[in-house]
Amino acid sequence: MNDPIFYKNNIPFFYPKSQFEITHDIYEHFDLSVKDQIKLHLSDQLWSGYPFQKILDFIENAIHPFNDFHILEIGCGVGRMASSIAFKFPHSSIWGVDYSFQMLNQARKSFIEGRSLNLSFENEGLGIIQHKSSALSNLKFGLTTAENLPFDNESQDFVYSSFTLDRLKNPLKGIDEMSRVLKKDGKLAIISPLNFIEKQHWIELYPTNKLIALLEQNGHQIIEYKDNFIVEQPFDRRGNKKIWNCVAIICVKED
Ligand SMILES: C[S@@+](CC[C@H](N)C(=O)[O-])C[C@H]1O[C@@H](n2cnc3c(N)ncnc32)[C@H](O)[C@@H]1O
Hints:
Layout: E1 6-8, E2 11-13, H1 19-23, H2 30-41, H3 44-47, H4 53-60, E3 70-74, H5 80-88, E4 93-98, H6 101-112, E5 117-120, E6 128-131, E7 139-143, E8 156-162, H7 171-181, E9 182-192, H8 199-205, H9 208-217, E10 220-234, E11 241-253
Parallel strand pairs: 3-4, 3-8, 4-7, 8-9
Antiparallel strand pairs: 1-2, 5-6, 9-11, 10-11
Bound molecules: S-adenosylmethionine.
């Protein structure tokens, strides 16, 4: 694995994100993005459960429970899924990587330091959340781009990514990198609403048979594929919500 270039708040940076890049990255904006991710991923008490539990179940069901796996999440955001997996699979070691320092800083506070979170969602008619976390010794977070992962070739047993593929500047390179770091017989799980941000990405990866073909060209055999995998993102007290129509794919890297 590459050495970090520098650390900020104990978070290793494997990519030297510039001030210009930080200023222009919506995911660095606390009120617009990080708070939204906290509301979705760390506020179960507001929703009587974890809204993305269906995704977490889909991922966890693909992980062998007794192995000491190397597991990697791409685009881990505030760290909820990586921390749940680290908790459930204590013999495995988990890395969560993301391009947003602010997301990772929240992830670090909650799941590396085990700090409680106290945040108001009263503007949305909701209450104050008090998320209690615990520090997990088998979990690490780092800043990088999905398109340039700091991990060695064939070093990971399980790689997964939720709601991130369609956010990447270069999703094809992201898929190449996920394939590169995965061991032979390792599994890759991708859950995405395929809500691409650039015309070129729609051309390259939509409809879903293009994504499937690309994964197969990268040496993967699809073992599970669900289209119309619906997840809901609630956002206020009235019950307004976004409904996301995702694909959920699990594939195995062949020889
Ligand atoms: C919509 S959020 C998804 C977070 C979480 N995985 C989920 O399921 O809700 C997208 C995440 O991808 C990250 N991201 C965007 N571009 C990235 C890139 N090139 N490399 C790594 N992460 C990236 C963002 O910082 C953000 O945390």
